[in-house]
């Protein structure tokens, strides 16, 4: 069974991997420049890197972490919609909007990190997630 809503799911997964690559491509050289010896690191946490690496480098890592948070709900609700046979039409369009907004959020956070713009993209994408959740509830109850 094919459901159109699977496509935006895969695109957001791919985007998350792009952000992981961008994180590594900027963070590893910054760690080297800061004299961080990964062989000597024991039990560190993400906030430790915030103290030793430039903010512009950390913005990519912070965004990758954000892509591990709310989008997990997106994946779950899209799976419900796909399995219930309601993952096409308007629900697929809403899912594409969510993905586009999350990618825009990533680009803002990873480059200029302007909070107002990030917040706008986050809030509108959250509304898309609410709509998908309501549609999933209607499909299964």
UniProtKB/TrEMBL annotation:
Localization terms from the record: Membrane
Keyword Transmembrane helix: yes
Chief location category: membrane
Keyword Transmembrane in annotation: yes
A Pfam short name: MAPEG
Alphabetic keyword roster: Membrane, Transmembrane, Transmembrane helix
Annotated SUPFAM superfamilies: MAPEG domain-like
Name of the protein in its database record: MAPEG family protein
UniProt cross-references to InterPro entries, sorted A to Z: MAPEG-like_dom_sf, Membr-assoc_MAPEG
Transmembrane stretches, start-end: 73-99, 119-140
């Amino acid at each position: 069974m094919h459901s159109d809503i699977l496509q935006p799911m895969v695109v957001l997964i791919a985007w998350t991997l792009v952000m992981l690559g961008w994180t590594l491509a900027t963070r590893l050289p910054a760690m080297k420049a800061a004299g961080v010896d990964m062989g000597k690191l024991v039990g560190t946490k993400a906030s430790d890197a915030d103290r030793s690496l430039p903010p512009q480098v950390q913005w990519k890592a912070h965004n990758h972490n954000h892509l591990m948070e709310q989008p997990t709900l997106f994946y779950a609700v899209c799976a419900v919609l796909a399995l219930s046979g309601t993952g096409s039409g308007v629900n697929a369009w809403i899912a594409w909007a969510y993905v586009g907004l999350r990618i825009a959020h990533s680009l803002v956070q990873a480059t200029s990190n302007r909070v107002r713009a990030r917040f706008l993209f986050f809030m509108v994408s959250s509304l898309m997630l609410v709509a998908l959740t309501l549609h999933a509830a209607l499909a299964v109850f």
